[in-house]
Amino acid sequence: MANEKSNKCLFDLTEHEILSQIYATHVYDKEKLDVLSLFTMAKNTLNRATSAVDKALSMGTSAPTDEKILDASFSPPLCTLKLISYEMQCCKSNTQCEENDPMIHIQNKALSILKMLSGYSWDAKAVLTLASFALDYGESCVLAQSQSEDDLAKSVRTLKKAPVLLNATQLQKHKQDFVDLNKVIKETLEVIQCIFDLVKQSNYETNDVPELETVLMGHIEGDKKQELNIFDDKLKAIKTKLNKQIEVYKGHKEKTEAYSKLVKVIQTSTEITVLLKELINPRSNIPPLTDGSTNKPVDIDVLMEKNVLLLISDLNISDEDIALLKIIYNELRKEERHKIVWIPFLEKRTDSQENEYKSLQSKIVECQIPWYIHNSTMAHCKLSEESCRFIREQWHYKDKPSIVVLNSQAQVKCQNAIHMIKAYGFRAYPFTSAVEENLLREEGWIVFTTNHITQMACGIKEKKHILLFGGDEKGIQKFDKKAKTLVTVSTDKLIKEKDISIQLVPIGKDNFEHFWSGVESLFISQAQRRTRIDNEGSILRKEIQKLLSFKNESTTWAVLSTGPSVVMVNGINTVKVSIEKKETSQGQDCCHMEIPFIPGITPEPMTCSQCKAIMETNIKFNCCHKALKDAAANKRP
User: Which residues form the Sieve element occlusion N-terminal domain (predicted)?
Assistant: First the structure.
């Protein structure tokens, strides 16, 4: 198969076949070379040589060339260059196939040179070959320009086949060849320069080295016709491809720099107005905010020396959330130290969003909540890419309403207070992480995650025994029947003697999303404060961890509590045993825990809640086809 490929012309091979042959010659990058210095030397030489040829062809003066200063300490690898030169200039064909098709001869020469340079990096291979060609071509041009009466120069010119450059008749006969050769040389220099530019932007390793190597095999041999225009076209295509890639990396670099600048400004800001302006309106003169109660634009200075509740969401803010914010605002306005700012988080705009946006604005105006909105129109409210990235990576926004609490000195006091506010209302004021910690200590995390369930609130208040349970639909129904029998007509002696009354609360479809959202939010807030080492905090984290391990499992799980105090979290069989105060053996099913991904934060090792071993870490990617659902929604009349 290899022989079959070597007998095919370069231009009959697919790109995959070319690359397969090229990669087979590469060992690893063991040879060291100052590639940039050698390229500078070769580029200077070839620029002078092509300029001299252009002058001879036009019978005019050569244009001045821009030259880079060479490092004086650089010593070119002359022996390697001579070996490459010999390989390029040796014209003897090794096979009948090569004699019949010069292109196959050139192709095999290229492969031979690549094998010789197998220990060099890809860019070094290209530059070494280019430099070897520059050495020969430059020498020929120097000899061609030497005075004709110099006998030594005449002899060397004859050996180097340089006389063709002096003979006007021969020069005109081969004029197009020289024009094409100069084009190829100039394009090659530009392509290699593109490669170096690309390396600056990334760790890009070009796959186009085979074409570069082959192009440099085009050597003028006396009166022999050379078809160089095909190489010129190929190089132009490569250059276009590389330039596009350079633009991509330049764009990526610009985005990275913009993001780094945003992070620095936000992390070092000491004024809330500076932080918000950089986040929502860094490059616009349009007033960044709109007063939600009047729908009139206002300047960001209205937030000077204010504490800000930064509501971040898409256009799906529920009436419940709006009503909750109204209650909170009515309490906050007594002090006039807090303001609410809504940032619509819209990474992509759709046709239906304009109407949704206007409808939501109307609701806000009707509720008479004087919060501030960024901005009054869809055209101006879209955040920059770096701001969207910051909100997702630094504040862990997950496409659900989130409230970031900022003080007047631009310090983040809580990355997401929405669950705290829903669970504790204004008792959580001023909505900081420290307040959340105190409330969790005093009232327990079960209040935090089940505030939306009315029967839970009553049971917690009356300090009843509560069995909160969930799982798949069949598991819930099956356990519900057994549990009702257990707590109503149980013949269990201990339960009867203790007069234990247990309230059953299933987590079904209606409250699944809300419940697990609260659990995940609590887990994230605990993960961000992983430095806690007190026993109480450790117990809370283990309980949340264990509960999360049941989220996407078919196993029916349960939380047993007395009022707000959690007794245990486990699989349903273990909880049932706990109720009956009997021991039983536990199953050996694997314990899984799926936690939300937090960009920039590596999860600490987790201990299994059942066997106490360190849990294995895996990565899971999930897609619920939100983009397809949005597209389908936009098509509806």
Answer: 14-216
Q: Which pLDDT tens digit goes with each residue over 565-593?
A: 888 777 666 655 555 543 333 344 565 55
Position 626 in a domain: yes
Q: Round to whole Å and give the CA distance between 119 and 69.
A: 28
The token pair that represents 499 in the structure block: 């007069």
> Is residue 471 within 8 Å of residue 444, measured between CB atoms?
no
Q: Where are the alpha helices (DSSP H) in 336-427?
A: 353-367, 378-381, 385-393, 418-424
Q: What is the CA angle 90-93-98, rounded to 5?
A: 130
| Whether residue 358 is found in the same domain as residue 488 | no
Q: Report the domain count for the chain.
A: 3
Instruction: Give per-residue pLDDT as tens, 153-211.
Output: 778 777 776 655 556 666 777 788 888 888 888 888 888 888 887 777 655 444 433 44
Q: Is residue 229 part of a domain?
A: no
Strand pairing report for 372-373 and 338-344: parallel
- 558 and 521 together in one domain: yes
Q: What is the pLDDT of residues 492-526, one digit of tens each?
A: 555 555 566 778 888 877 788 788 877 887 777 67
Q: State whether 285 and 316 are in the same domain.
A: yes
The angle subtended at Cα 351 by Cα 349 and Cα 352, nearest 5°, is: 100
Torsion angles phi and psi, residue 403, rounded to 5: -120, 110
**What is the reported pTM?**
0.58
Cα angle 148, 153, 158 (rounded to 5 degrees) comes to: 95
